[in-house]
Amino acid sequence: MRFILGLLKFLIVLLVLLIGVAFLLPAKVHVERSIVIDRPTSEVFAVVNSFKLFNSWSPWAEKDPNAKYTFEGPRSGVGAKISWVGNDQVGSGNQTITESDSKQADKRVSSAIDFGEMGKVSADFFLSSAPKGSQVRWTMDMNLPMSFDQKFVSNLIGRYMGLFMDKLVGPDYERGLGKLKVLLEGFPNVDIAGMDGEPVELAAHKILFVSAHSSNDVAATSATLAAAYTQIRSYALANRILLMDAPLSITTSSDASGWQFDAAIPVDRIDGAADDQVKSGTTYAGKAVQFWSVGAYDKLTDSIARAYAWLAVNGYQPADRLIEQYIDDPASMPVEQVRTQIQIPVK
């Protein structure tokens, strides 16, 4: 009997001691890892500001390839949300972007993560320029409250678990940052700051077009386009066909040897007489992302390269030929105001 009483006293003292120590343990947990990625902060920001490519670099996706994911809210930025249900290793929960700041030199993306009964944490990405690309810091913060209520036992355990959180989560963060580095360094190394792609649904339009080829010289390209548009206008006039919109170019191929394309103009009908040079058809119809290039045409090559880089880091895949529409005539306005619309069909 004395032994039992002694054991009970010992257990009570031990419990009181554990509870007392728990109140003295840190009430917050902070985990942090960092890496340098050889890409501009604008590209890194685009990837971590969205969940569309999350499973391409997430350290937890590989732990349960059969986990179910759902996406809600906008494609990127504040309100973008991912939810998951998986095995014991990944559990279930959701993550929502709560803050997204790309305007400062040092960029930040903050998220709230809800693990249900397991608790809530906040996760942040801090991005800054580095001599070789971007310095990326990934942090996790968690509050560990202590109160005498129905969650007292779980809170007590949580305080002690907090002592090991860095060792539990840190390796996952390191692995995730490593995968993020590999993913991003596989994309074009292009600064996409200021690029603003707009998802659109394109309708098919009737066109007259002339297939042509030009060198990559801007003057030569302009001359080739001008000659093709003159052919189209002459054909349209002869066949009483109305021109309906600004001229287009639709890229067939482009490389160091030159540019293969269709010079086209939207029209009201395509039932004119057969012609060896001027053909008729319709433009692409379907999903696309639209960009704007403002200024001289010699900026277009750079604008198009940045547009394709923007697509890559935002999780889009090109699906068809690039379309350029020359909205303004540089002969009738200052060249720095000339607008060109860039439309890239996507899957």
From TrEMBL:
SUPFAM superfamilies: Bet v1-like, Probable bacterial effector-binding domain
Superkingdom of source: Bacteria
Pfam families per the UniProt record, alphabetical: GyrI-like (PF06445), Polyketide_cyc2 (PF10604)
Ranges for domain AraC effector-binding: 195-347
Protein name per the record: AraC effector-binding domain-containing protein
Native organism taxonomy: Bacteria, Pseudomonadati, Pseudomonadota, Gammaproteobacteria, Lysobacterales
